[in-house]
Request: fold
Amino acid sequence: MLNIVLFGPPGAGKGTQSDKIVKEYNLIHLSTGEMLRDEIAQATELGKQAKELIDEGKLVPDKVVVEMIKHLINLHSEANGFIFDGFPRTMAQANALDHLLTSEKTSISGMISLKVPKKELISRILLRGKTSGRSDDNNEEIIEQRIKEYNAKTAPLEGYYKKQDKYFPVDGVGKIDEIFERISKVINRLQD
Ligand code: AMP
Reply:
C-alpha cells in the first residue's frame, strides 16, 4: 500500500494537490476537514459540536477524528493506499494512525510537507473564502488562530516523521502543476 500524509498549514494547498494525487496514483482521499463539513451540512450532533470549534479556529477532539479515520480505513482495506489530508494534526492522532495502519499490516510511506510562507497562506485563504462558503475562511482573526493551532500542535509532527526517515518537505509556492510535479517526484521515489 502507498500511504501518504499530505501535510502543511491551512492554505498550503493540501486539498488541491490531494485531488491531483488521488487521480494519478489511484488512492483513497481521506480529509477530516471535509468529513467534518459533511457532518455540519447534515446537521448531525457531531457536526453541531464540531462547528463551534471550527468556527473558532480550534481543533476538534482527537477521539472524533480518529474514529472517523478508523471507520474509513477499515471500509477500504482493499485500497491501493490512502492520502491523509489534514490528518494527523496532533501527536496523539499520529500515534493512533500508526496503530490503525499496523493492524491493517501496513504503514505510512511518507509525509509530504508543503512549505508556504505565512503571508501567502493568509491571502490564499481569504481568496478561497470568497467562494468556499467556509465560515473559517473569511475572518483574518480566525485564520490567525488556525495557524497558531497548527504551529503549536501540528507542526511538531514533522519531527515525528523525520525520526522515522519519512519526512519530505516540498516547496508549496508556484503554479499548481509545478507543485504537483515536485510532489510526484517524491511519491515516485517512495513507490520504488
Ligand atoms: P481543514 O479543512 O483541514 O482546514 O479543517 C478545517 C477545520 O476542521 C480545522 O480548523 C479543525 O477545526 C477541524 N479539523 C480538521 N481535521 C482535523 C483534525 N485532524 N484534528 C482536529 N481538528 C480537525
